[in-house]
């Protein structure tokens, strides 16, 4: 192995030493690169690769150092609420220290406030810690593979296995996994934004360049960048931390976590409520002191009430519920990369979906071949090359050319076939494009040995496929080495426009209008059966370096190939669910309109007799106003023969109309549409790295059904957040109203003490709220229209429900309190803190709130449905949390040590029975309200007729 240098080495060594050590990788001609890196055009031998892997380590960057645990914990105390509470606790401690005589109640309050701060910090810490772990494990689920030549065989393997000397094959959409020197490039260009910040595409070639900065060498590609067009072959010269990316970003910090609009909304609401709590505390103080209450005691009490009303646990509960949503979506194969997607999913109104792979299985099988005016059937299903072509001879040239003009490989069933979830029937797999894979299978069924054909006509050039021109061409030499031929395949319309002749049973005929019409009619006939149709053609060219224009004009058409791609069985139900949920589904495909319509009918996207079909050409002719008009029409919509640029335009147009758009994409040039959409959805199994980077959600199984599942979960996350908001705020009303009532009724003491309120917060707030955040989706969650993006979280409905439930609770506790006081016959002015009746009454108030919160938690579980329909016991966490709260209350009521702390008294069985009756009453009232709602305000059936919501 020649001593080879990269400028990275050079910068670390004295210049003279560098010169003496050997040439720079970018200055060598392609043929010498292999020798210099001690490898060959066949790639490394497997044993050599293992040895190099042991020597160089895995191709990974060192992980960014995680924040120390104590720092993470300390950060929790820097939160606004924590600071407010800490200050309140400090003031209370101070008052206790200065009091003469000291009141142990003040001390308890200070400790209780501190307890609330610690509990919240612990929850916040646990949530952040687990969110980080979840993010890491989710990240590991996104496949990061690369194509490598080892022992002359092309294979796909995890990018971390790459070693210097590996020969990699790069295609548009691939992320570059190591620093590589190109030895072959076909119209390749890369985006170096991650390294240079420059996001324009820069062309690459395999030719040697003069010595200079490595990053400027046009024959090198670097880890962390993306191939955005063309294809290339390259030799790895640096991996892991030794790459340019590794040098620059060695200790790359984790991306800052952004707050979603929902989190911001909740945070601002929590701040406002905290402001209101402070105001209420101040008012209580201002009213009670002139009424003759002791100054210090009233101040301490008002402080306690303020603290109790501050919704300090709210942001943490929100984050937990979003995190639960993300985990649930991952279980349904939808990997959310940004929390933003969780809430946007709930208000999605339009899904623009690809066809191949998302609605269909992407398991292409050629079923018909047309050549020389005759149509032939091909038998067999899937990628196993087992089947027959009805007339092998007449389709031989068509399948030979189509088979050689491609980069896919057919892999026989591996011995451990179970490891490959995307393998086709019989375990045969396609490495690369599935359309091209189907052509290889068809060629094999026609008895062609493509390896021998390739040897006889070796490929010397390539113009890669792109979805704008919808064509691909390769240039092949003949055995004599003097003549060259271009083989072209692609969408029939595009190819036909570039053909001047047609192969008619071995002889070239001019492509007359009649023959052209016959080809078009055959194409339409195949497409209307739902087949993807490809045409193939060829022509002699001047040499290996012929231009794309030369290779793809003046062609002789060889025939048409129709391939079947069966719909995914789970998609029809998912399409129905989306229709019910008022979500419009628009198919966006590069395929022929008739193919698109046939598939759309099969999966239920099209049911009308005449859907609106807009082709790429028509889209080009429409200005923005006209396009808006088309999208506004209440019909089923198919966008066919479109390019990624069209997709982007349609997404923007939908957004202009106020729609919330989810769009799927797999190719490198889908990235702008994926970024621009409200929810960019990339394919995990078949998509490109570039698309996955641009998207906010990745479908691990590529299926449309997973989008529908994610929408359902996204909606339920939002609903759950509302549930615990109602739950939390309604009990605040139940705490506050008796205090105000007692104040205004002239009762000298408080009906519930600040320490009691804090105990309720600790025992009955946080855990049930967390359990509500984990509620499974309600059965009718997909029967409602999408939530408007403008809708506020704390809407009039939520406020109304909070007042309704909180009002009933407040009424209940006021009744039990004053009933106790009045039944004793003791005048107000004779009550002291140690009075047994008073202690019983305040115990009743505290227990009343705790018990009614148990029933309240059950009541808020559904919006409209009866809670009995989803099953009273179906959220065991909620029941456990409720029982914990009641258990704690019982301990406060019966344990002498806690009785002293809380000034409580033991309640009789009859007292609990009364409180339970109030709880049942609350549930009954809420059930009646829901029944009334179902009866008088039925949900408008939202299933869009056609395209309409
Ligand atoms: P879909 O919605 O089915 O996923 P798409 O939008 O991804 O379609 P493209 O892959 O861009 O469509 O293909 C557009 C057209 O180009 C196809 O209908 C087909 O005729 C042709 N085509 C697809 N793949 C190739 C290929 N590898 N080589 C040549 N032509 C191809």
TrEMBL record:
Family: Belongs to the cation transport ATPase (P-type) (TC 3.A.3) family. Type IIA subfamily.
GO cellular component terms, A-Z: plasma membrane
Species, as recorded: Streptomyces gilvosporeus
Gene3D superfamilies: Calcium-transporting ATPase, cytoplasmic domain N, Calcium-transporting ATPase, cytoplasmic transduction domain A, Calcium-transporting ATPase, transmembrane domain, HAD superfamily/HAD-like
Residue spans crossing the bilayer: 80-99, 105-126, 273-291, 297-324, 724-747, 753-772, 793-821, 841-860, 872-895, 907-925
Main localization of the protein described in the UniProt heading: membrane
Protein name per the record: Cation-transporting ATPase
Subcellular location as annotated: Cell membrane
InterPro entries for this protein: ATPase_P-typ_cation-transptr_C, ATPase_P-typ_cation-transptr_N, ATPase_P-typ_cyto_dom_N, ATPase_P-typ_P_site, ATPase_P-typ_TM_dom_sf, ATPase_P-typ_transduc_dom_A_sf, ATPase_P-type_domA, Cation_transp_ATPase_P-type
Protein's membrane topology: Multi-pass membrane protein
Region Disordered, annotated ranges: 1-20
A Pfam family it matches: Cation_ATPase_N
GO molecular function, one term: ATP binding
SMART domains on file: Cation_ATPase_N
Alphabetical UniProt keywords: ATP-binding, Cell membrane, Membrane, Nucleotide-binding, Translocase, Transmembrane, Transmembrane helix
Domain of life: Bacteria
């Amino acid at each position: 192995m020649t001593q080879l240098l990269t400028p990275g080495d050079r910068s670390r060594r004295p210049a003279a030493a560098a010169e003496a050590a050997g040439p720079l990788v970018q200055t060598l001609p392609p043929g010498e690169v292999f020798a210099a890196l001690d490898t060959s055009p066949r790639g490394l031998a497997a044993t050599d690769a293992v040895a190099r892997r042991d020597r160089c380590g895995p191709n990974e960057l060192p992980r960014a150092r995680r924040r120390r645990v104590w720092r993470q914990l300390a950060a929790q105390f820097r939160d606004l609420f924590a600071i407010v509470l800490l200050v309140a606790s400090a003031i209370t401690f101070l008052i206790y220290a200065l009091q003469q005589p000291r009141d142990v109640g003040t001390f308890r309050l200070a400790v209780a406030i501190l307890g609330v701060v610690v509990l919240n910090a612990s929850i916040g810490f646990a949530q952040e810690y687990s969110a980080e772990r979840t993010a890491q494990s989710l990240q590991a689920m996104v496949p990061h593979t690369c194509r490598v030549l080892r022992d002359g065989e092309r294979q796909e393997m995890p990018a971390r296995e790459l070693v210097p000397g590996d020969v990699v094959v790069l295609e548009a959409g691939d992320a570059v996994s190591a620093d590589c020197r190109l030895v072959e490039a076909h119209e390749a260009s890369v985006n170096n934004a991650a390294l240079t910040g420059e996001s324009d595409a820069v062309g690459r070639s395999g030719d040697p360049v003069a010595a200079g900065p490595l990053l400027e060498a046009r024959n090198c590609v670097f880890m962390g960048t993306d191939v955005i067009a063309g294809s290339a072959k390259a030799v790895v010269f640096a991996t892991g931390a030794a790459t340019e990316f590794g040098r620059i970003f060695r200790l790359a910090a984790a991306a800052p976590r952004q707050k979603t609009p929902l989190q911001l909304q909740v945070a601002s609401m929590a701040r406002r409520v905290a402001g209101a709590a402070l105001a209420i505390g101040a008012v209580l103080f201002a009213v009670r002191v002139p009424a003759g209450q002791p100054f210090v005691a009233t101040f301490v009490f008002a402080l306690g009430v303020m603290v109790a009303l501050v919704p300090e646990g709210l942001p943490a509960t929100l984050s937990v519920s979003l995190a639960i949503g993300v985990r649930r979506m991952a279980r349904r194969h939808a990997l959310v990369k940004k929390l933003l997607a969780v809430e946007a999913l709930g208000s999605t109104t339009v899904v623009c979906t690809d066809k191949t792979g998302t609605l269909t299985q992407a398991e292409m099988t050629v079923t018909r071949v047309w050549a020389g005016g005759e149509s032939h059937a091909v038998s067999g299903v899937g990628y196993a090359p087992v089947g027959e072509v009805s007339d092998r001879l007449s389709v031989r040239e068509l399948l030979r050319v189509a088979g050689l003009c491609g980069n896919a490989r057919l892999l026989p069933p591996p011995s451990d076939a179970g490891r490959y979830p995307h393998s086709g029937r019989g375990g045969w797999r396609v490495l690369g494009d599935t359309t091209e894979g189907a052509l290889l299978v068809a060629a094999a069924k026609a008895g062609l040995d493509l390896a021998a054909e390739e040897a006889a006509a070796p490929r010397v050039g390539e113009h890669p496929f792109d979805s704008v021109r919808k064509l691909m061409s390769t240039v092949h030499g003949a055995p004599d080495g003097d003549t060259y031929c271009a083989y072209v395949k692609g969408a029939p319309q595009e190819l036909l426009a570039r053909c001047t002749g047609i192969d008619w049973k071995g002889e070239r005929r001019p492509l007359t209008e009649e023959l052209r019409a016959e080809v078009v009619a055959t194409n339409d006939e195949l497409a209307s059966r739902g087949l993807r149709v490809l045409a193939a053609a060829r022509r002699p060219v001047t040499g290996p370096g012929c231009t794309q224009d030369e290779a793809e004009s003046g062609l002789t058409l060889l025939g048409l190939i129709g391939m079947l791609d069966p719909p995914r069985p789970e998609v029809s139900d998912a399409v129905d669910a989306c229709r019910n949920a008022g979500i419009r589904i628009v198919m966006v495909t590069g395929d022929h309109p008739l193919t698109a319509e046939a598939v759309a009918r099969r999966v239920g996207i099209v049911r009308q007799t005449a859907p609106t079909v807009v082709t790429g050409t028509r889209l080009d002719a429409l200005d923005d106003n006209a396009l808006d008009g088309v999208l506004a029409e209440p019909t089923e919509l198919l966008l066919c023969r479109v390019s990624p640029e069209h997709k982007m335009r349609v997404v923007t147009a939908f957004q202009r109309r106020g729609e919330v758009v989810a769009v799927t994409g797999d190719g490198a040039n889908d990235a702008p549409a994926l970024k621009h959409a409200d929810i960019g959805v990339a394919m995990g199994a078949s998509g490109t790295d570039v698309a996955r980077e641009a998207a906010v959600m990745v479908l691990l199984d590529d299926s449309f059904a997973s989008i529908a599942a994610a929408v359902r979960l996204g909606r339920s996350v939002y609903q759950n957040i509302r549930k615990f908001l109602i739950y939390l705020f309604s009990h605040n009303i139940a705490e506050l109203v008796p205090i105000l009532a007692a104040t205004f009724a002239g009762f000298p003491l408080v009906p519930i003490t600040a320490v009691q309120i804090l105990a309720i917060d600790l025992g009955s707030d946080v855990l049930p709220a967390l359990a509500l955040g984990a509620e499974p989706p309600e059965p009718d969650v997909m029967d409602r229209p999408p939530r408007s993006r403008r809708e506020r979280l704390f809407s009039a409905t939520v406020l109304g429900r909070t007042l309704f439930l909180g009002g009933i609770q407040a009424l209940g506790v006021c009744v039990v309190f004053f009933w106790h006081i009045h039944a004793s016959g003791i005048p107000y002015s004779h009550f002291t803190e140690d009075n047994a009746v008073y202690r019983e009454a305040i115990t009743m108030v505290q227990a009343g709130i705790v018990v009614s919160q148990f029933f309240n938690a059950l009541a808020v579980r559904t919006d409209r449905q009866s809670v009995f329909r989803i099953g009273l016991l179906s959220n065991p966490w909620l029941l456990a949390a409720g029982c914990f709260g009641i258990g704690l209350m019982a301990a406060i009521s019966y344990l002498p040590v806690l009785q002293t702390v809380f000034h409580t008294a033991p309640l009789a069985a009859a007292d609990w029975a009364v409180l339970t009756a109030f709880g049942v009453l609350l549930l009954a009232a809420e059930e009646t309200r829901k029944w009334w709602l179902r009866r008088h305000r039925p949900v408008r059936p939202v299933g869009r007729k056609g395209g309409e919501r």
